[in-house]
Amino acid sequence: MNQPYPFDPIQDSLIFSILYEVMESEGKGLELKQAIYSHLKEGKNFFHTPKSQKNNLLNRLPTQIRKWKEVGDIQKIENLILGLIQGRNLEIPSLDLALELVEWIIVGYEEEQLSLQLLKVLANHKLQFTPEHLQKFKDLYSSYVSKETRI
């Protein structure tokens, strides 16, 4: 089996690079990076989720998340994201997949508390996020997406 391709959240993920930018504006970018890497065992790295596995999960997981959201079982959503980040749900930590799902939730749902809670999960509960952080994130996200659509 081929070695998975390394995943650098700042370079390879729009959501994480924007979140990093928001936190860096307060001098907490390094803390965010350290927090995300604190999910890993020492000496381990994040890798891209194999494409076929990622596509399959991105087709299935949003349906499951919607069901949990409808019944108010937010803890299951948090556990799913945490499990993906730490590699409990798959053979390797799948931060890339977790970030895509968190992006989908933050952008697709206007639920501030859920979004803030998932940001804390991403940061392994080592950083606090405020509604202002979330708003800055959304503003930057909209700016980046609108620039991309002009290309």
Task: Summarize this structure as a short list of keywords or feature phrases.
globular; 151 residues; mainly alpha
Structural notes for this entry:
- The chain has 151 residues and is an all-alpha fold.
- It has one domain.
- Helix content is 67%, strand content 0%.
- It has eight helices and no strands.
- It is globular and about 40 Å long.
- The protein starts with 8 loop residues before the first helix and ends with a helix.
Q: What is the N-to-C order of secondary-structure elements (H for helix, E for strand)?
A: HHHHHHHH
- Report the end-to-end length measured between terminal Cα atoms: 37 Å
Nearest-integer average pLDDT: 91
Shape type: globular
- Major sheet, described briefly? none
Q: Counting H and I runs of at least 4 residues, what is the number of helices?
A: 8
Number of domains: 1
Q: Assign the structural class, choosing from mainly alpha, mainly beta, alpha/beta, alpha+beta, or little secondary structure.
A: mainly alpha
The helicity comes to 55-70%
* DSSP strand content: under 5%
Gyration radius (Cα, Å) is 15 Å
Task: List the uncertain runs.
Answer: none
Query: Total number of β-strand segments?
Result: 0
Write the layout of secondary structure elements.
Elements: H1 9-12, H2 14-24, H3 29-37, H4 51-70, H5 74-86, H6 95-108, H7 112-122, H8 131-149
Helix pairs in contact: 2-3, 2-8, 5-6, 5-7, 6-7
